Amino acid sequence: MTPPEGRWDTPGSPAAPPGASFEEETLADLEVGAVVDGTVSRITPYGAFLTLEGGKVGLVHISEIDRNYVKDVHEHLRETDVVQAKVIAIKEDGKIDLSIKALQDPAPSRPRRGADPDFEARLKKFMRQSEERQVDFKRSVEHKRK
Questions:
Q1: Contact 30, 96 (CB under 8 A)
Q2: Structural domain tally of the chain?
Q3: Which of 57, 45, 55 is nearest to 21 (CA)?
Q4: Residue 98 contacts by C-beta under 8 Å, 6 or more apart in sequence?
Q5: Could you tell me the residue range of the domain that residue 44 belongs to?
Q6: pTM tops 0.70
């Protein structure tokens, strides 16, 4: 038996379910972690809606636009901008959550506590000086009491 002509998942092919539309198959092709191109179609105070291939719409929440604080979405995106975003979730009702921030370079790592080799020496010096000051203070207080 020879395989059917065309791709197995194209609408109208023998392997495609009857009545399957291109839009349903585009959603099926989307999976969490996929990187997609989208056009900003609407900007709201809480994020931006991107129109993806196949006419599907996904939301980039304001917290997923940039690693830095985003006060106003208009400072980062304009309508009709074409941006890349990563699919971070597809909800049961078909809503698509996207993230531009996930495609940015990782945040620079902060130095770990205790990574400063000079710290121990400075701490030891401070403790010694502190003890000396306390001893001097106690002597002066005791001397005044007598």
A1: yes
A2: 2
A3: 55
A4: 36, 38, 50, 58, 59, 60, 64, 85, 86, 87, 88
A5: 31-103
A6: no
Gyration radius from the chain CA atoms: 31
What DSSP string describes 26-71? HHHH--TT-EEEEEEEEEETTEEEEE-GGG-EEEEEGGGS-SS--S
**66 lies in the same domain as 123:** no
Residue by residue, pLDDT tens for the chain (146 residues) are 444 444 334 444 344 444 444 444 445 568 888 899 999 999 999 999 999 988 899 999 999 999 889 999 999 999 999 999 999 999 999 899 999 999 887 777 776 766 777 888 888 999 999 999 998 888 888 877 76
Reference 35, options 67, 58, 63; nearest CA is: 58
